[in-house]
Fold:
Amino acid sequence: MTNDSPTDGRRAARAERIAALGYAYADQPTSPIPACNLCGHAGFVVVTHRDRYGYPARAMGCRRCGLVFLNPQMTADAYKRFYVSAYRPLVSAYHGRVIDAKSIQAEQRSYAVERGEFLDPFLRDAGYATLLDIGGSTGVVSHAWTTRFGLNGTVIDPSPLEIEEARALGLDTVTAIIEDWDAGGRVFDTVVMCQTVDHLLDIRGTFAAVRRLLRPDGVFFVDIVDFRAAYLRNWSVEEAIKIDHPYYLTDATMTAYLRRAGFDVLRTDYAADHLLVGYVCRPCVPATDSLPDPASVATLLDEARLVQNAPRGGR
Ligand SMILES: [Zn+2]
Structure:
């Protein structure tokens, strides 16, 4: 009845572009996640059965801590193949414009300026010499910050095309995912993870690695796509789920992750886009049993239900 509305037309065109890529998500190897990566609990709620691209990706929420994650999850090898060949074309097909290693650099430059202001009080004149950028993409952000704060930068990213751009900017580069990288005992003064944590396969393990890679009085910057912001802005939980993000974090779950890993949050930034939330942290004694307030878990699950069932015409 409403198939000829402009919105449905745009949706159909988007679905056609995604289908034309021929990426067979359902055929990729996956592993089941038996226990919550944040709190270890095994009681989950299946929140969605498909993602924004239309792929049959199930997202589950942990009843104890509110962490939301894809379950099952594609294997590390499947994700590596995804990043080499499918990721940018898929995001381009979704948005209907080319998003690649070149075109994302303008966006990364404005990101670097805005977050550079946020980090300035913590990095300027701090006596730091080195910066590690985990998931650093084309190196635009690292380049801006190493220049601004007088640091030597190292970028680690799984995409060869993006690492090529980072190398051209004079940065040290590693083509890998952080979970596989052996740093050989190196320690950095600052570690940053920009728009990356949602892409990790093991957040807990990665944060433990970051803690080892960071000097005791160093600074760690990380930001999340706030899952609540993502579903509230589109008024759709499915539109907030995408196969490129194994994890969906909120301020509550991220804060618990950081405390458990041994990071004290010095300042939090609700970014100007109203979607990302940034954290500047310093190492501290881990609070290994930190959990979000149970009220935040109830809010999340209730809110997801409300968004899924509110009358479409009445919002
Ligand atoms: Zn949990």
Remarks:
- The CA atoms of residues 252 and 296 lie 7 Å apart.
- The chain has a mean pLDDT of 94.
- The domain at 104-292 is CATH 3.40.50.150 (Rossmann fold).
